[in-house]
Amino acid sequence: MVDGQRGPNILVTGTPGTGKTSTCALLAQATRLKHVNIGELVKEKELHDGWDDQLLCHIINEDLVCDHLEEQMSAGGNVVDYHGCDFFPERWFDLVVVLQAKTAVLYDRLANRGYMDEKLHNNIQCEIFQVLLEEARESYKEEIVMPLPSDTIEDMSNNVGALKEWLRTHAPSYVIE
């Protein structure tokens, strides 16, 4: 928990298309948290083991990512954006947010991104079976896992408000008034 020794770290996770990057960007704009987009970091710093031609994405090297982020996460003050969560050290996070979307909404978002059959189907199944929520609950203490709906712009605004409220309680110096 945030103890004054370091700033807060929040992980925002969820199936691709649930609004993680947009939510984190808005939260970073409204606070003193630094947005860490793991997908972009992996590309920029080449923290991967190549390209998956079937899923059309980099094969993340989790050890390289964790090694690269260790110092920054130890200092705190980060909002991390990634669709997985079980490989990050538990000690890094004070709050783990799992964004969730209705499958019809998610389907449209992913189809608009150009996701093809298998990738689209896999991500919809992931959301139906709440894979990311279960992963978060298995990887972190139940009391720090916060599922939030993310179907609309209003949901996103409400979620940023809820996260700012959490910060006001746990790390008020990070909220910009």
From TrEMBL:
Protein residues bound to ATP: G17, G19, K20, T21, S22, R113
GO molecular function: AMP kinase activity; ATP binding; ATP hydrolysis activity
Keyword Secreted: no
EC number(s) recorded for this UniProt protein: 2.7.4.3
Span list, region LID: 112-122
Cited Gene3D superfamilies: P-loop containing nucleotide triphosphate hydrolases
One GO cellular component, as annotated: cytoplasm
Keyword Kinase belongs to the record: yes
Primary subcellular site in the record, as a coarse category: cytoplasm
Region (NMPbind): 37-60
Alphabetical list of SUPFAM superfamilies matching this protein: P-loop containing nucleoside triphosphate hydrolases
UniProt keyword annotations, A-Z: ATP-binding, Cytoplasm, Kinase, Nucleotide-binding, Nucleus, Ribosome biogenesis, rRNA processing, Transferase
Catalysed reaction, written as an equation: AMP + ATP = 2 ADP; ATP + H2O = ADP + phosphate + H(+)
Example GO BP: ribosomal small subunit biogenesis
Subcellular locations according to the entry: Cytoplasm; Nucleus
Pfam families: AAA_18
Family membership: Belongs to the adenylate kinase family. AK6 subfamily.
Subunit architecture: Interacts with small ribosomal subunit protein uS11. Not a structural component of 43S pre-ribosomes, but transiently interacts with them by binding to uS11.
General function of this protein: Broad-specificity nucleoside monophosphate (NMP) kinase that catalyzes the reversible transfer of the terminal phosphate group between nucleoside triphosphates and monophosphates. Has also ATPase activity. Involved in the late cytoplasmic maturation steps of the 40S ribosomal particles, specifically 18S rRNA maturation. While NMP activity is not required for ribosome maturation, ATPase activity is. Associates transiently with small ribosomal subunit protein uS11. ATP hydrolysis breaks the interaction with uS11.
PANTHER family per the UniProt record, alphabetical: ADENYLATE KINASE ISOENZYME 6, POS9-ACTIVATING FACTOR FAP7-RELATED
Name used for this protein in its record: Adenylate kinase isoenzyme 6 homolog
